[in-house]
Design a protein that fits this description.
mainly beta; 24-stranded antiparallel beta barrel; two-stranded parallel sheet
Length: 685
């Protein structure tokens, strides 16, 4: 199906709808879009945001009562800094409970931008009482959700075509991606769920997958039951400090805003995504006694790895696999190839202004980690046993927030990250963050702020500022300078670089937002013209973006973007551009809503590629990059069939004007069109 077909279908469906729309406010502050594009551009990876998005959805459905919220409750709202949280709690303690949300305007640090962002996630003056979990709640106060999802590339890819000589194909399974999940929740008390997924090419109830789905995940998570603050059984994630010692989950980017540079650790969390390797499986619990919190965790499960038998006959592995796809024989060989055991604890003293914590844990594999013998791998972790220990702190003094974490590994490598957030005025915030990660610091499960793919071999300082120069006008800027003291992959000498961000946002009214953004990333890479001398050259990538979202009528919102990317080295230059127009229809109490986008793009090469967030099914995220030249479009529809039953359908197409094939290897498509169909059903009861 071509872009023209999708455009015609969209026009046919939308014309009769124009006559019966009514007012609705579209929340254009899409957090996933804000952080996802930055993360994908920096790491060239798309991660699973399911757990994070579900957390926001839960808060939206069960808003935080500001008059009864604890600091931990308020930290669930990602827009708030610790200084704002402290000022809010001090205001309530001094003046009594809030009488109206408008009272937030009188609290220091709460500017109009912050208040507008948090409104969907907060409430006041409720009669809800926090009490222990009761068995009867499962039947009377629980929310049950059942999901079914289907996804498939409609063009036939090379991996599904039979070989003329053998009569077999590279992928033994169907090209469909299947997903199902059940979850029961009681807000702030209980989460129970099971998830199952089959990736494209994997077999289903036959061959290598006789148990049906390739991946299964289950969890039981209990909160606020007496002195048991959290209890996790099954699959879960753990997040402590600033992510330097132990952190499962994703990381915000430096261009996402000051509130996202500093991390607010979530402690234990139920695991609900389909990331098949980055989670813990076992049991964990946080016990709370007055100001003291003690977390104990144990995990033991198989993970994907490139395993082999070494010269001594022992099992070894050279890398951990993260794709989670097990279709080909080599991928199946890597599946669950290595056993991993993690055990440790986190002890914390928590008060309104000061939090200090200590984390320690052991990681044990049933095989030896042996990376390839390359100079850049000289300081990498090897063997089967590692220890990590760290100390984290968070202190608030008036309008200043001091925070950080220091850590050490079994190799005696050390790492530290320390920051200061200052809010001298309700319309001005400033942050400085310094990190120093020694080259021999080794941790496989951390995710602190970094420009590197791991928290090692890096030092740097980032400064960021946010302020409202005039009403309805907001500015964010940051500058990060960093160094890599040792070699890196494909970089044969110590290197350095910097990243600069500048964004001006204007909101003339509640429904209209526009911003201009400039971003520059400068790093050093190998000089391909003289590789034997191991010299480096400076490479910079500049991106210029104009984005606007505005109401076209009572129920139609338009979004437009123009972006230019310029990549420069000493003697080469490449450019790229992306232009799109998006139509969003949302009518109050209407069972139907949809979005449609049409994009034009052209890039000289891969270096000038451009990432852009796209609307998708519920808890699904698409952040593709524009590469080569062509056009793309998608049509995303949600329809509420009846009370408790909703369905989503998404059809997308990319058409290249300068390609005769798409992709490579088993993923190759002979032709210049790629069409993806997705469908999802959610049943709530």
């Amino acid at each position: 199906m071509s872009c023209k077909t999708i455009i015609l279908l969209t026009f046919t469906l939308s014309v009769p709808l124009i006559n019966f729309a009514q007012n609705d406010t579209i929340n254009d502050n899409n957090i996933i879009e804000k952080i996802g594009e930055d993360y994908a551009e920096k790491t060239n990876q798309i991660i699973d945001y399911t757990s994070f998005a579900e957390g926001l959805d839960d808060i939206r459905e069960h808003p935080v009562d500001l008059n009864k919220a604890s600091p931990e409750d308020l930290k669930k709202i990602p827009f708030l800094t610790d200084i704002q949280i402290n000022n809010l709690l001090n205001h309530i303690d001094k003046n009594g409970k809030l009488l109206s949300l408008y009272e937030l305007q009188s609290i220091e640090g709460f500017d109009d931008e912050t208040i507008q962002k948090i409104l969907p996630y907060v409430k006041i003056n409720t009669d809800d009482n926090i009490r222990k979990l009761r068995f009867s709640d499962i039947f009377h106060n629980s929310k049950n959700q059942l999901y079914f999802k289907y996804q498939e590339v409609l063009q036939k890819q090379k991996g599904y075509q039979s070989d003329d000589n053998t009569g077999t194909s590279s992928y033994p399974g169907s090209p469909a991606k299947l997903y199902t999940r059940y979850r029961m929740t009681i807000p702030n008390k209980l989460s129970l769920g099971i998830t199952a997924e089959k990736d494209p090419g994997e077999e289903f109830f036959n061959g290598s997958q006789k148990n049906g789905f390739d991946f299964y995940s289950a969890h039981l998570f209990i909160k606020n039951s007496g002195f048991i603050k959290e209890l996790a059984i099954g699959d879960y994630s753990a997040q402590f400090g600033q992510g330097l010692t132990l952190w499962n989950g994703f990381l915000y980017g430096s261009s996402s805003g000051i509130a996202f540079i500093k991390k607010n650790a979530g402690g234990l969390k139920p695991f609900t995504s389909c990331d098949e390797n980055n989670f813990m499986r076992g049991i964990a619990s946080t016990l709370k006694f007055s100001n003291v919190e003690a977390t104990f965790f144990y995990s033991n499960h198989k993970i994907d790895a490139n395993a082999f038998t070494d010269t001594t006959g022992a099992i070894s592995f050279s890398s951990l696999q993260e794709s989670g796809i097990h279709a080909t024989q080599s991928q199946l060989k890597n599946k669950d190839a290595v056993g991993e055991e993690i055990a440790g604890s986190h002890l914390a003293w928590v008060s309104s202004k000061l939090t200090i914590g200590i984390t320690g844990y052991r990681t044990l594999f049933d095989g030896n980690f042996q990376k390839t013998e390359k100079p850049y791998n000289f300081f990498e972790f090897s063997g089967n046993l590692n220890y990590n220990a760290g100390f984290d702190y968070n202190y608030i003094y008036r309008n200043m927030n001091f925070f950080g974490e220091s850590s050490v590994s079994k190799s005696y490598g050390k790492a530290t990250i320390n920051g200061l957030l200052i809010c001298p005025d309700r319309n001005l915030s400033f942050m400085i963050l310094n990190r120093y990660y020694e080259v021999n610091y080794q941790s496989l499960y951390n995710n602190a702020f970094s420009q590197n793919t791991k928290n090692a071999n890096e030092s740097g300082t980032i400064m960021a500022v946010e302020f409202n120069p005039v009403a309805k006008c907001f500015y964010y800027g940051s500058y990060d300078v960093f160094r890599f003291p040792w070699l890196r992959y494909n970089i044969d000498a110590p290197s350095k670089g910097y990243e600069a961000n500048s964004q001006l946002t204007i909101k003339p009214d509640k429904k209209t937002e526009m911003y201009i953004k400039w971003k520059r990333m400068s790093k050093q890479l190998n000089n391909s013209e003289n590789p034997s001398h191991h010299t480096l050259i400076d490479c910079t990538r500049d991106s210029y973006r104009f984005h606007i979202s505005y109401p076209a009528s009572e129920y139609f919102t338009f979004r437009d973007r123009v972006e230019l990317s310029i990549y420069n080295t000493n003697d080469t230059k490449s450019k790229g551009y992306l232009i799109y127009h998006e139509i969003i229809f949302k009518k109050f109490r209407s069972p139907l809503s949809f979005s449609f986008r049409y994009s034009l793009f052209s890039t000289d090469d891969y270096n000038s590629r451009i990432y852009s967030y796209e609307s998708d099914l519920l808890y699904n995220y698409s952040i593709p990059f524009a590469y080569y030249s062509g056009m793309s479009c998608y049509f995303n529809v949600k329809y509420k069939i009846s009370k408790g039953i909703s369905a989503w359908i998404r059809l997308s197409n990319v058409h290249y004007t300068n390609r005769s094939t798409i992709g490579s290897g088993p993923e190759q498509i002979d032709g210049n069109n790629k069409t993806i169909l997705k469908a999802q059903v959610r049943i709530e009861f």
